[in-house]
Amino acid sequence: MYIKLENEVMCIFACRRFHHTTPDNKTHSGEKYTDPFKLGWRDLKGLYEDIRKELLITTSELKEMSEYYFDGKGKAFRPIIVALMARACNIHHNNSRHVQASQRTIALIAEMIHTASLVHDDVIDDASSRRGKHTVNKIWGEKKAVLAGDLILSAASIALARIGNTTVISILTQVIEDLVRGEFLQLGSKENENERFAHYLEKTFKKTASLIANSCKAVSVLGCPDPVVHEIAYQYGKNIGIAFQLIDDVLDFTSCSDQMGKPTSADLKLGLATGPVLFACQQFPEMNAMIMRRFSLPGDVDRARQYVLQSDGVQQTTYLAQQYCHEAIREISKLRPSPERDALIQLSEIVLTRDK
Amino acid sequence: MNLRQLLFRLPLYLGASGSPRRLWWSPSFDTIFSVGSWRGQSSKSPAHWNQVVSEAEKIVGYPTSFMSLRCLLSDELSNIAMQVRKLVGTQHPLLTTARGLVYDSQNSLQLRGLVVLLISKAAGPSSGNASCQNYDMVSGIYSCQRSLAEITELIHTALLVHRGIVNLNELQSSDGPLKDMQFGNKIAILSGDFLLANACNGLALLQNTKVVELLASALMDLVQGVYHENSTSAKENYITDDIGISTWKEQTFLSHGALLAKSCQAAMELAKHDAEVQNMAFQYGKHMAMSHKINSDLQPFTKEKTGDSMTFNLNSAPVVLHQEFLGRDLWIKQIREAQEKGRLDYGKLRERIKAGKGVTSAIDLCRYHGNKALEALESFPPSEARSALENIVFAVTRFS
């Protein structure tokens, strides 16, 4: 799967075509418009309260820090995908409209693992704000922030163990490893241009898509014995995860240009060369030097941004994200029709058109 | 370069002099090297302790010294060793931690793994349970138990590394450039996370959800314990929090006892021993760890030649007990009296503490836990492994 898309990427390098999508009110499924977030939330009521129960410890400040992001203000994108996938798989298997408690727990665990990694990432990146508030490391310091991340991870692991399914444990522990390896990939850099793109996609998979792919797989394992379904769930999660991150990387360039005042370019400032930059470098080889030195010289960030906006890097990356979304839709369409399956299809379209 | 060669070169990479601890399986060493003085403390590690550990390692079949380092050093993708090397010359605590992992120290850092292996051997195979027949057993220990021992060390090392994170807004100019500390923090977080990820994967491979739950809850305990260590450490004026010995015991269980206790229990679960055996293993682990910690706390007060500049932890057992006997107000007075121009004269304070009841009381507490550990061992059949576990208790409870 990965290799197939890599070939597509090579094609992009070779012939640089791109393709418009016209906005459409009709989904691929042709069904009436419903909000996939609302549909998914039906199974997730009390999500954050339940997560906080897993973090029930006596040490009050540590508890406060660990609960900090579970305030109900996040989008809960991952739990929603998980909840929808659970239903889609259950219906596919035996038309059951029942969601198992263990499947719901996967939604909690996914959100907890994600949050734990965010807390650590914020310390690594020395970030000051997230989701409109100060980061844990800025309020309580780096030492305690790292411990809070460890606590959330341990709570997630306990919840995972209590499900009592060794296959599911194996699937989700893979995510924990992928998250760390993804961060390490980000530390290093590649000389060769072609290697860079593969490196970028691998990092994107490990840091973002692995969690979604494996959570989807885990709920499908709990709901259905058919390995074909497990693979469908995994592929959907993987493809939508990569698309999600690619669009995120695009927004780091485009969301600023719509606003007055200083652009964010958060990735460039961290020395990261994402999709738009890598594509732009094709047109402007002078960017190579900046990429190699991770935009560390004064003026690099702004110059790189200018190059990207002058190039078709944004369009190329968006096109690539579309390809991944199409793949996600193709996979999930193999499941028996259901409102949840259609919601998952819609979600992949929403991923493409969101503007943060 | 094979792993052993890399391990021997690591101290040089880390910028330290001297040799790592003696490895009994290495034929080129004849003598035991004592701990170098790079830590600024003169410490005569008793040959007796090294002997106890050496004998124990022979019983379980191999040295446990570098269990948690294997994954770090052999993983090319993470290349952590190379990253840590960049920290040589900085003041980041990770460098100290890394050196400590390679060198022997008073608190033999891979002791947990060794104890888990010993107790696995001491308990032997579970009587009449057919499901264990699939596991292979080497030197009386199942491979899943060996794996568990390694996982225990991974978790311990991960938190050891995470303990070394530095608060950036507390840095002084003497700590060096900010970017060194930021980089050090980054590597420390990632290394710790990498170790935890390896631990989680190892747990998943054991295919036993009860064991996963036990170790995950041990991790949660450990995190809370480390948190308490950070919070109750002395503030600028050296006045520590007012915690009594029972709170101290609870926190110390979290930071030092829980991991070993639950690991020992998990080792029994893997061999399908019953709840009673699991509980005895838990009790041994818990009490042995407590007495080990108290022993370590007592070193500054019981060793004969201690330099006056040698500091000690104001939240250690003898000090907490001393405070309890003295009462809070008198204790604060003693701290103030031992200060000169804002700096604490540890030598002076040590004398005040030794003059009180804290030290003897701590020795008693150490022996109390030691005895509880020995009691727990009585339910295991006599064996070499059981004797080794007893010897470990004797070694940590003796104060000459």
UniProtKB/TrEMBL annotation, chain A:
Keyword annotations: Isoprene biosynthesis, Lipid metabolism, Magnesium, Metal-binding, Mitochondrion, Transferase, Ubiquinone biosynthesis
GO CC entries: heterotetrameric polyprenyl diphosphate synthase complex
Localization, UniProt: Mitochondrion
Statement: the UniProt record of this protein carries the keyword Zinc: no
Single GO BP term: isoprenoid biosynthetic process
Listed pathway(s): Cofactor biosynthesis; ubiquinone biosynthesis
Keyword Metal-binding part of the UniProt annotation: yes
GO molecular function term, any single one: metal ion binding
Function: Heterotetrameric enzyme that catalyzes the condensation of farnesyl diphosphate (FPP), which acts as a primer, and isopentenyl diphosphate (IPP) to produce prenyl diphosphates of varying chain lengths and participates in the determination of the side chain of ubiquinone. Supplies nona and decaprenyl diphosphate, the precursors for the side chain of the isoprenoid quinones ubiquinone-9 (Q9)and ubiquinone-10 (Q10) respectively. The enzyme adds isopentenyl diphosphate molecules sequentially to farnesyl diphosphate with trans stereochemistry.
Protein name: All trans-polyprenyl-diphosphate synthase PDSS1
Organism: Aotus nancymaae (Ma's night monkey)
UniProtKB/TrEMBL annotation, chain B:
Annotated GO biological process: cerebellum development; isoprenoid biosynthetic process; regulation of body fluid levels; ubiquinone biosynthetic process
A GO cellular-component term linked to this record: cytosol
SUPFAM superfamilies reported for this sequence: Terpenoid synthases
A GO molecular-function descriptor: protein heterodimerization activity
InterPro entries associated with the record: Isoprenoid_synthase_dom_sf, Polyprenyl_synt
Superkingdom of the organism of origin: Eukaryota
Keywords: Transferase
Family: Belongs to the FPP/GGPP synthase family.
Name of protein: Decaprenyl diphosphate synthase subunit 2
Organism from which the protein derives: Aotus nancymaae
